[in-house]
């Protein structure tokens, strides 16, 4: 698949900065890295975990808040509630 993006100058600068500090040779490599991290984050959020930065000295953390994570968590919670209702209904009718 070929993709084309129209980015404002500040985002182009950010992309290039990320490639530099991460020693990432190509835009494709940067995109694949970002996709891998985002996919992992979504799986963690759907499992009920938070994505956070931890200050190891103080033990304090700062949660990363992204609308997509909030939506994924909501969807996972809704699915769990639906399964719980199905389990309750099955128990009430003697099945399960």
How does this structure look, described?
By secondary structure, the chain is mainly alpha-helical. The protein has one domain (9-92). It has three helices and two strands. A two-stranded antiparallel sheet has the order 1-2. A hairpin with a 6-residue loop joins strand 1 and strand 2.
Keywords:
single chain, 3 helices, two-stranded antiparallel ribbon, elongated, 96 residues, mainly alpha
The shape, in one word, is elongated
The proportion of strand residues reads 5-15%
The number of domains = 1
Radius of gyration using CA atoms only: 20 Å
Span between termini: 46 Å
Overall pLDDT score: 92
Q: What's the count of strands? A: 2
Number of helices: 3
Q: How would a crystallographer describe the biggest sheet?
A: 2 strands, antiparallel
Task: Give the % helix.
Answer: 55-70%
Strand-and-helix sequence, N→C? HHEEH
Classify the secondary structure makeup into a structural class: mainly alpha
Low-confidence runs:
none
Strand order in space, largest sheet: 1-2
Describe the structure concisely.
With 96 residues, the protein is mainly alpha-helical.
Please describe the topology of this protein:
Blueprint: H1 9-21, H2 27-46, E1 52-54, E2 61-63, H3 67-92
Antiparallel strand pairs: 1-2
